[in-house]
Amino acid sequence: MEMDFQISLVAPATPEAVADDAVEDSDAAEDSGADGDTSVYDLIVIGGGPAGLTAALYASRNGLDPLVFTGHMPGGQIANTERMENYPGFPEGISGPDLAQRMVEQVTKFGPTMLQEGVRTADFSVRPFEIASSSGTYKAHAVIIATGSFPRRLGIKGESEFFGRGVSTCATCDGFFYRDRRVVVIGGGDSAIEEGLFLTKFASEVIVIHRRDELRASEILQKRAFANPTIRFVWDSVVDEILGEQTVTAVRVQNVTTGETSLIDTDGVFVYVGLVPATKIFRGQLELDSSGYIVTDRLLRASVPGVYAAGDVQSPSFRQAVIAAGSGAMAAMEVDRYLAEIADD
User: Fold this and answer.
1) pLDDT per residue rounded down to tens, the chain (345 residues)
2) Per the residue annotation, which of 65, 173, 236, 240 is the catalytic one?
3) 265 an active-site residue?
4) Do residues 211 and 238 touch, judged by C-beta distance below 8 A?
5) Rounded to 5 degrees, what are φ and ψ at 93?
6) Which of 90, 251, 287, 296 is deepest in the core (most CB within 10 A)?
7) How far apart are CA 320 and CA 226, in angstroms?
8) Which of 170, 190, 267, 336 is catalytic?
9) Within the chain, how many helices (H) and strands (E) appear?
10) Domains within the chain, CATH numbers bracketed
11) What's the farthest any 2 CA atoms get from each other in the chain?
12) Terminal Cα distance for the chain, rounded
C-alpha cells in the first residue's frame, strides 16, 4: 500500500493529542464495522515518530512484513520542532518537518504497509495479537509500541477553557499569531527555553515563569535565553489561573517562597511542564511504571512475549530523536530474532 505522506506543522487539536498521534481515544471511538484484512503480519509498529519509523525501516530491510500505524501526522514530536541541530548527519541543522519527511520517504522505499491513522485498541491476550484502528482489525505475531508522549497539563482553572484561544503547547505551531504581543512560557526545561527563544521571533516580550530559582535547560540554551533582550524571567513562581474573556488576557501568579500573588497581562500562554506517555490503551495488558511508561528489559521486551516498546514511551530519561531512533532499530532487530525463535518451535 503506497501512501503519499507530506509532513507539515499542524497544531494538536488538544494537549492530549500526542505528537505522532498513533493512539486514538478508544473511549470516544466508534466501531467502524470494518474487519481490516485477513493477513497475519510479521510485525505491527504503532507509532510514526523516529522510533517507529526506524523500527519499520529495519524490519522491512530485514525481510519482515511490517504494518505501520503512523498516526495522522507522521514524524512524531520532531514534526513540531522548528530546527534540529543535534541530529547526526546534518552539520548545518535541519528542520523537524524536513527530517520527518526524509524518514518517511526512506521507510516507504522499502515497501512496508503504512496506514496514516491511529490505533484504537490492542489485544495482547490472543495470538496472533490483534490491533484495531478506524479501518478495522489487524493481526501480527509481534508488536513494537512507539507511541511517544504528549504534553502534560497544569490542571489549573482556565487552561482547558482557553486551549486554542491563547493557551498552547506548540510555539512552532502558534507563534506566528503572537506577533508584537506579550506571551508567557511556563517551564524551565529544554522545551520551554527552546520554544521561548522561538517565540522571540514574533512576540514583543516573552516572560518565562519557573517554579525554581534556576533553569533545568541545557547550558547552551540558558546562555541564549539570558542573552536575549526579549526574554525576562519570573523565578520561584507558579501560575494558579489563566484569565480571559474570549481569549487569554492574563495569568495569576503565586510566588512559592513568599506566597504573594500577582497578575501578569499576556496574550498567550505556552505550557511546557513535562510529558505523559501515550499508553492508555495498554493499561491492564502490559506492565507500566508508576508514571505510565512501558516497563521493558534491556532488549526492549515488554511484559508480554512478542511485544516491544521503543522511544519515549518506555524511556523518559533522554527524550532525544537520535536515542528514539536507536531504540527503534534495537526493537526491530530483537523482533527479527524473536520471530526466528518461534518459527523453530
Assistant:
1) 444 554 444 444 443 443 346 777 544 444 444 555 678 999 999 999 999 999 999 999 999 999 999 998 888 878 877 778 889 999 999 988 899 999 999 999 999 999 999 999 999 999 999 999 999 999 999 999 999 988 889 999 999 999 989 999 888 778 989 999 999 999 999 989 999 999 999 999 999 999 999 999 999 999 999 999 999 999 999 999 999 999 999 999 999 999 999 999 999 999 999 889 999 999 999 999 999 999 999 999 999 999 999 999 998 777 789 999 999 999 999 999 999 999 987
2) 173
3) no
4) yes
5) 85, 165
6) 251
7) 24
8) 170
9) 6, 17
10) 15-151+275-344 (3.50.50.60), 167-271 (3.50.50.60)
11) 68
12) 31
Q: Which three cell numbers stand for residue 195?
A: 520554544
Please indicate whether residue 27 is annotated as part of the active site.
no
CB contact at 8 A, 10 and 164: no
Helices (H), the chain: 50-61, 96-109, 171-174, 190-199, 219-227, 321-344
DSSP 13: S
Per DSSP, the three-state class of 160 is: coil
The Cα–Cα gap between 266 and 183 comes to 5
List 174, 190, 267, 336, catalytic entry:
174
Closest CA to 269 of 151, 147, 190: 151
Please say whether the beta carbons of 171 and 196 come within 8 A: yes
Task: Sheet containing 268-271: give its strands across.
Answer: 167-168, 268-271, 182-186, 205-209, 231-234
What angle do helix axes 219-227 and 190-199 make, rounded to 10 degrees? 30
Active site residue 170: yes
* pTM of the predicted protein model: 0.78
